[in-house]
Amino acid sequence: xxILLIDDEEKLARHLQKGLSQAxxxxxxxxxxxxxxxxxxxxQYDLILxxxxxxxxxxxxxxxxxxxxxxDTPVMILSALNQSQHVVQGxxxxxxxxxxxxxxxxxxxxxxxxxxxxQAGTRLPIxxxxxxxxxxxxxxxxxxxxxxxxTPREYQLLEQFMRQPGRVLSKVxxxxxxxxxxxxxxxxxxxxxxxxxxxxxxxxxxxPLLETVVGVGYRLRGALTxx
Length: 227
Known about the structure:
This protein has 227 residues and is an alpha/beta fold.
């Protein structure tokens, strides 16, 4: 899933970003409600994790504005506010779940899986570019009907390309989307992962889909259809 985390506790936010990324999710962090609203309006997220006690624009304000803007992205509240009135208010404003801080990462991941199962029943969860398909509910990837086993990191990389086929993504862009903030951009880890991903996606097929644009980055050829 592509997740937006809105939380002003930077240390906690980065910890969650790392843990969720290791579980195979793509995570972007906003440290204020205003920044979170801007990202939510511009990006395509599968889930928003929202703290309530934010400086300036509170989490309740963020949730209210999201719904007023017509954005129906599922929102899960993560908050130290644990009185029933806060839970009721958050759910009444349209949140799908309310998780009290502190919590275990495993519990958060389990709640996220519940949201995924709910989305699978109400949304069209399969992306297709050419004969390459990605099932967002089951995280299964196939090409011409042949199953392709990807690591969590490879899946995250491919998801970035599937979201915007035809667009060249640079190493810096992939680093920002897939790796956490303390990643060493001078390393060759992106190149290594892309090499492995291309082998899995294009090996044994006459028409390559992932290509290198020399000096710029990488691109997935084709157009996206959703079914």
